[in-house]
């Protein structure tokens, strides 16, 4: 297994504070029963709803949870101001957040977020010291009409042209084909590998300073305990983003144990 393999849980709009606390106590108990191997060489990021962030930060005191990274699922690009209902990067940092998911297809499709809007969010978050998990991916009609590469290049270019090179290493790019999210069937290994390689080439073209600054590429879309091992072994994949299967604590631990 690679060093620092990412396992990112995206809880989406699930679990209130009490349910978050119960999950984290269960996680601590389950990890105590597994060997330490389960967490070794992995960076586990839990991206929870805003209302669960403080519970997650507190529960890091529990046995085996101290190395969990705290993640959010959205952020506004302004530092402060008249943006009712929004949260700034500084608010996330001061709440103990390390990572934030931006550009998820649910935000692009359901909330009309454009490439330009997402790009401004990414810059604001990186400038504030957050690490950003940028989601990109084609929908099924784009794939069928052979536009996968164009769509992904557009989504990545729109963000990277705005960034200074020394900020790029704090970016992680999640390839999430829209048609595989919540579908129960992930993209095939060949499909994942092909697009991951394509993404890596785009990223490398922006990283002239050092190969160490090239962002990691992870995969999301119906990752489960059944397919995670094979996905994790793909050479171009540095992690997984897990939605539905991360909501059940036992299943999440099974995923951690499988890789
Ligand atoms: P899924 O979701 O694992 O339920 O497919 C992944 C995601 O939307 O990030």
The radius of gyration over CA amounts to: 17 Å
**Percent range for β-strand residues:** 15-25%
Content-based structural category: alpha/beta
* Count of β-strands: 8
Ligands in the model, by name, code or SMILES, are: 2-phosphoglycolic acid
* Largest β-sheet summary: 8 strands, parallel, barrel
Under the CATH scheme, the architecture is: Alpha-Beta Barrel
- Helix and strand pattern: EHEHEHEHHEHHHEHEHEH
Q: Please count the helical segments.
A: 11
Coarse morphology: globular
CATH superfamily: Aldolase class I
**How many domains in all?**
1
CATH topology: TIM Barrel
Summarize the structure.
The chain has 259 residues and is α/β, with parallel strands linked by helices.
Task: Give structural attributes.
8 strands, TIM Barrel, alpha/beta, 8-stranded parallel β-barrel, 259 residues
Could you explain how this protein is built, in words?
By secondary structure, the protein is of the alpha/beta class. It has one domain (5-258): Alpha-Beta Barrel (TIM Barrel). The chain contains eleven helices and eight strands. Strands 1-2-3-4-5-6-7-8 form an eight-stranded parallel β-barrel, surrounded by four helices. Helix 10 links the parallel strand 7 and strand 8 (239-242). Helix 5 crosses helix 7 (148-160) and helix 7 (148-160) runs parallel beside helix 9 (189-204). The longest helix is centred in the N-terminal third of the chain and has 17 residues, at 17-33. The protein is globular. The mean pLDDT is 94. The structure holds 2-phosphoglycolic acid. Residues 10, 176, 181-182, 220-223, 241-245 line the site of 2-phosphoglycolic acid.
């Amino acid at each position: 297994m690679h060093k620092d393999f990412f396992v990112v849980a995206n809880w989406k709009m699930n679990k209130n504070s009490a349910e978050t606390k119960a999950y984290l106590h269960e996680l601590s108990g389950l990890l105590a029963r597994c060997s330490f191997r389960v967490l070794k060489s992995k960076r586990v990021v839990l991206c929870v709803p805003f209302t669960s962030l403080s519970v997650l930060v507190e529960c890091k005191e529990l046995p085996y949870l101290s190395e969990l990274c705290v993640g959010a699922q959205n952020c506004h690009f302004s530092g402060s101001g008249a943006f009712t209902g929004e949260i700034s990067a500084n608010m996330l940092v001061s709440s103990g957040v390390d990572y934030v998911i931006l550009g998820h297809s649910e935000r692009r499709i359901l909330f009309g977020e454009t490439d330009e809007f997402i790009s401004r969010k990414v810059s604001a978050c990186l400038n504030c010291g957050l690490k950003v998990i940028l989601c990109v991916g084609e929908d099924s009609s784009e794939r069928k009409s052979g536009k996968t590469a164009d769509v992904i290049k557009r989504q990545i270019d729109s963000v990277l042209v705005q960034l200074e090179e020394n900020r790029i290493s704090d970016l992680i790019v999640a390839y999430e084909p829209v048609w595989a999210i919540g579908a129960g069937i992930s993209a095939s290994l060949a499909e994942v590998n092909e697009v991951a390689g394509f993404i890596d080439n785009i990223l490398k073209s922006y990283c002239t300073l050092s190969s160490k600054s090239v962002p990691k590429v992870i995969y999301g879309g119906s990752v489960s305990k059944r397919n995670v091992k094979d996905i994790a072994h793909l050479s171009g994949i540095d992690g997984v983003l897990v939605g539905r299967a991360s909501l059940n604590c036992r299943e999440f631990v099974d995923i951690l144990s499988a890789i």
